[in-house]
Design a protein that fits this description.
The complex is a heterodimer of chains A (about 100) and B (about 200).
Chain A (H helix, E strand, L loop, with lengths): L1 H16 L5 H11 L2 H19 L9 H10 L9 H6 L11
Helix pairs in contact in A: 1-2, 1-3
Chain B lengths: L3 H13 L3 H19 L6 H18 L9 H19 L11 H6 L3 H7 L4 H19 L2 H12 L4 H8 L3 H30 L1
Classes of the chains: A mainly alpha (about 100), B mainly alpha (about 200).
GO molecular function, one term (chain B): DNA binding
Keywords (chain B): DNA-binding, Sigma factor, Transcription, Transcription regulation
Protein name (chain B): RNA polymerase sigma factor
C-alpha cells in the first residue's frame, strides 16, 4: 500500500515537473515534494530531461534539402482541401492520417 | 502578432493554393526537428533520414485534407511517428523491452577504463556515465514510452499536444512519461549512489 502511495506521489511529481499538474492535485503534489523521496524524484526527473536535451541531435546528411526538394517536385500538387466533398462524406472533423 | 501555428497555417494554405515553394519552407523549418524525433526511434541515421523524407512526402500528399484543427507540427509529428513505426515493422524489428538491450549496454561502457587511465577528472567521467546510462535506458524503452518522453523533454510539447500526436488520452500521456522516467531513474540511482560514495 505504501509502495502504491509512493508511486502515485512520484507520478504527481512527474506531472508537476512538466507544469501539467491539475489544480485538484496541486496540494497533494506539493506535499509529496516535501519528502526526501519526493525531492529525489524531482531532482532525478529534471536531471533526466537535462541529459536528454544535451544529447547532440543526429544531423541530416549534406544535400538532404536538395534531395527532398527534387522528390517533392516530382509530386503532383496536393490542391485545395476538399472541404465540401469531405464534409458531405461525414469526415469534416477528422484530420487526415496518411499513414 | 502572428503565432507560429498561424504562420504554419498560412504556408499550408499557400501550398493548397498551388504554391509548392511554401512547402519547401515548411520542410526547411521542420526537417531538423523531425530528424531529431525520428532518430530517437530509428537509430541508423541513413534509415532515419529516409523516414524523414517519407514523412514529408506523405504530409505533402495529404495536405489537401489538413484543416488546421491541430497545429501543423503535431500533425507532421504524428505522420513521422507512424512512418517510423511502420518502418520498424517492415524491417522485422520490434521495440526492445526493458529486460534486454539496456542491461547489455549498461555493462558496455567501454570508455570508463580508458577515461580513468588518462586521468580525466572524476566529475567528467561521472557525467559521461550518467549521460550514457540515460541514453541507453532510453533506447531500451518500449516505443510508446520513448516517443512520449522525447516529445515532452526534447520537443517540449504539452501533454495535450502529445495526446494529439500519439492519438491517446492525456492521462495515458502522463502515465507513459512517468513510466519512462521511472525506468530511466531506476538505472540512474545506483550510479548516483556510487558518485555520492566517492565524494565522501
Amino acid at each position: 500500500m505504501a509502495m502504491d502511495t509512493n508511486k502515485k506521489n512520484r507520478e504527481l511529481i512527474s506531472a508537476l515537473c512538466d507544469g501539467e499538474i491539475p489544480d485538484v492535485d496541486q496540494e497533494l503534489a506539493l506535499a509529496a515534494l516535501d519528502t526526501p523521496e519526493g525531492r529525489q524524484a524531482w531532482a532525478l526527473f529534471h536531471q533526466i530531461g537535462d541529459v536528454l536535451r544535451a544529447d547532440p541531435a543526429t544531423d541530416l546528411s549534406p544535400g538532404f534539402t536538395e534531395r527532398m526538394a527534387a522528390r517533392l517536385a516530382a509530386e503532383p500538387l496536393p490542391g485545395k482541401r476538399a472541404a465540401v466533398a469531405d464534409a458531405a462524406a461525414g469526415q469534416a472533423t477528422v484530420a487526415a492520417d496518411p499513414t | 502578432m502572428t503565432t507560429e501555428r498561424e504562420c504554419d497555417q498560412l504556408l499550408v494554405e499557400r501550398v493548397q493554393a498551388g504554391d509548392r515553394r511554401a512547402f519547401d519552407l515548411l520542410v526547411a523549418k521542420y526537417q531538423r526537428r523531425l530528424m531529431r524525433l525520428v532518430s530517437r526511434l530509428v537509430h541508423d541515421p541513413a534509415e532515419a533520414e529516409d523516414v524523414v523524407q517519407e514523412t514529408f512526402i506523405k504530409a505533402f500528399r495529404a495536405l489537401r485534407h489538413f484543416r488546421g484543427d491541430s497545429a501543423f507540427y503535431t500533425w507532421l509529428y504524428r505522420i513521422g511517428i507512424n512512418t517510423a513505426k511502420n518502418f520498424l515493422v517492415t524491417q522485422g524489428r520490434r521495440a526492445p523491452t526493458s529486460t534486454e538491450a539496456d542491461a547489455e549496454r549498461a555493462e558496455g561502457f567501454d570508455d570508463a577504463d580508458s577515461l580513468r587511465d588518462i586521468n580525466t577528472p572524476e566529475s567528467m567521467l561521472a557525467s559521461k556515465q550518467i549521460a550514457y546510462t540515460v541514453n541507453a535506458a532510453m533506447e531500451a524503452l518500449p516505443l510508446e514510452l520513448r516517443t512520449a518522453i522525447v516529445l515532452r523533454e526534447i520537443e517540449g510539447l504539452s501533454y495535450e499536444e502529445i495526446s494529439e500526436v500519439m492519438a491517446c488520452p492525456i492521462g495515458t500521456v502522463r502515465s507513459r512519461i512517468f513510466r519512462a522516467r521511472e525506468v530511466i531513474a531506476e538505472k540512474l540511482r545506483p550510479l548516483l549512489d556510487i558518485s555520492a560514495d566517492k565524494r565522501r
